[in-house]
TrEMBL record:
The keyword Transmembrane appears for this protein: no
Transmembrane segments: none
Protein name: Ras-related protein Rab-30
A cellular-component GO term for this protein: Golgi apparatus
Main location: membrane
Record's subcellular location: Autolysosome membrane; Cytoplasmic vesicle, Autophagosome membrane; Golgi apparatus, cis-Golgi network membrane; Golgi apparatus, trans-Golgi network membrane
Length: 216
């Protein structure tokens, strides 16, 4: 077979590999559990002695929702201040941001307005943002009341969820609910743009969503 046709075949297969492609970026203070959330969701494990992320890490997971294949590109950013200029460059093309804090660490909650300023400055205005309070397995050490976090999230038009990467509480729900919301918005957007006739499987829907989705 001509090598060119092999390349074309592969491209064609890849294009049909999924119905939607979404980019999700996790942000938040160092040590709140971003990497553990990603690894719990993508690999089903809680890594022992997880070290700090250097720069940005990347994982992919494809899930099936109501018969449609959804490819999630998940970007795990370093929370440390010194990596901020690198991580900011990943906001722009994100379809969704998971802003994470640690329910046992008041400081990580108090920094949220600073993170929101970053989002406002660097992310697309249409990005979907979810606030996540992680480490709920450490209930006895809780420093941030759920109601306070819920009210804060509502005031900022963010979705809110509490998770435990360690115990696997709400981790699947976090990513799957987010994927469902992104699909809904992509479909709405496709309808609004009336461009379904030209959409290629695994290609057109994501592209039209990426370019002009509406959120929250
Ligand atoms: N008890 C408990 N510990 C957790 C949980 N999630 C993460 N941790 C612990 O918190 C620490 C930091 O976790 P990471 O996932 O590395 O945090 P991070 O937000 O990615 O940190 P940076 O990469 O520095 O930004 C590690 O010691 C984890 O074992 C959780 O749900 N429960």
């Amino acid at each position: 077979m001509n090598p060119l046709s092999i390349v074309w075949e592969k491209t064609r297969v890849n294009m049909e590999d999924y119905d939607y492609l979404f980019k999700i970026v996790l942000i938040g203070n160092a040590g709140v559990g971003k990497t553990c959330l990603v690894r719990r969701f993508t690999q089903g494990l809680f890594p022992p002695g997880q070290g700090a992320t250097i720069g940005v890490d990347f994982m992919i997971k494809t899930v099936e929702i109501k018969g449609e294949k959804v490819k999630l590109q998940i970007w795990d950013t370093a929370g440390q201040e010194r990596f901020r200029s690198i991580t900011q460059s990943y906001y722009r093309s994100a379809n969704a941001l998971i802003l994470t804090y640690d329910i046992t660490c008041e400081d990580s909650f108090r920094c949220l307005p600073e993170w929101l300023r970053e989002i406002e400055q660097y992310a697309n205005t249409t990005v979907v943002t979810v606030l996540v309070g992680n480490k709920i397995d450490l209930a006895e050490k809780r420093e941030v009341l759920r109601q306070r976090a819920e009210e804060f999230a509502e005031s900022q038009s963010m979705l809110y969820l509490e998770t435990s990467a360690k115990e696997s509480d709400n981790v699947e729900k976090l990513f799957l609910d987010l994927a469902c919301k992104l699909i809904r918005e992509a479909k709405q957007n496709t309808l609004d743009n009336n461009d379904t006739a030209n959409a290629m499987p695994g290609e057109g829907k994501a592209i039209s969503y990426l370019s002009c989705c509406s959120t929250n």
